[in-house]
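Here is one chain, start to finish.
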Amino acid sequence: MTPALLTAIPPGKPYEDLASYAASGGYRALGDALSGSGPSPAGVLRLVEEAGLRGRGGAAFPAARKWALAAAAGGSPKHVVANGGEHEPGSLKDRLLVARHPHKVIEGMALCAYATGASEGWLYLIEDMSEAVERAEEAAREARAAGLLGPARQDGGFRFEVRVVKAPPTYVAGEETAALEVIEGRKPWPRRKPPFPGESGLFGRPTTVNNVETLACVPGIVRRGPEWFRSLGTRGGVGTMLFTLDDRVERPGVHEMPMGATFRELLYEAGGGPVDKRPLRALLPATSSRFLPASRLDLPMTHEDVKAAGSSLGCGGLSFLLEGECVVERAAALAGFFKREQCGQCPACRMETSTLAAVLEQVRRGEAGDYASQIEKIVAFAAGKGHCSLIPMAAAPVVSALELFPEDFAHHASRGRCPGAPAPPR
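Its structure:
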């Protein structure tokens, strides 16, 4: 596979600096566009649309539709936010991408700004991403000194500046409108939509918010064409995507895979399979998605295929459940995570996340009554409420675990242990 994002770093360099990036064609797409030898702003937008680029932060929203909304909006200044607010367990791809290839993200931001008419850029990173923050700030300084950013960038009247912003280390801070709140100096509380950021975002101005991986795809699309990007996918997929595997596999880390590759290819070919070689019981494509049975290992990793199977790719932090591992313990841990990470703004979310965690803890200890009915009622009550999508995210792994492994839950609820597990000593 030809990598689109995680290319080789020159020996002896901690990251792809400006000289290395430019030597491999970096900033050529932006330079050609600004000099008039490349596409117009509308042309850049059209290329992104023809490439079929979709958001890599979890929602998989078509990037060109976001850009078009901001481009059509009146008022200035307009903004671009590169969202690297990654705080989901099992996902490391945003911090790795920014730490190794910050200029790809910055050029992607600049091309987005060119296409939408923006002049202000914000590279939004969690404050504990110390390496990524350092590399992003250094890359912005390099680009500014070279006249690629700031007041010196005057080609055709285009001016664009990038600032690095550090966000609090909470899950909700990665939600796109919570990011806007943080940049404006407030708590990371998601906003109710509409209006959407493309209409009224940062400081009430049109704003395009994209994940850093999404924006890093853009320079290659503009320089090489949408057909090149589409050709990187397989089995109906478009482009590549970054997936994270934890240290429970032989080759952990971030793997760039063609969209349409299967879960089996990611887990066993790229990752080398589970370290202890036990059979698989289930897959969890991301913390905020639904469990899939092990029989879906050969499912193509496209948004459409995974959605049709009842789950979602999310941000690509794949985890799994092996034979002998307790699904109730896993579900309880996930419920506890969402309880801790909800921001407290919406009563329905506070109620759902707290109740799910409490019920799962009762099941885990063997003290639960009609737990299935309780879970069903609280999920139904909370559906469609709240300012962001954390409510369905919190419910997805719990409900799907219960559907796939009802016997495990029933045994745990009455005995406090998994089927086949020995009783504790008296």
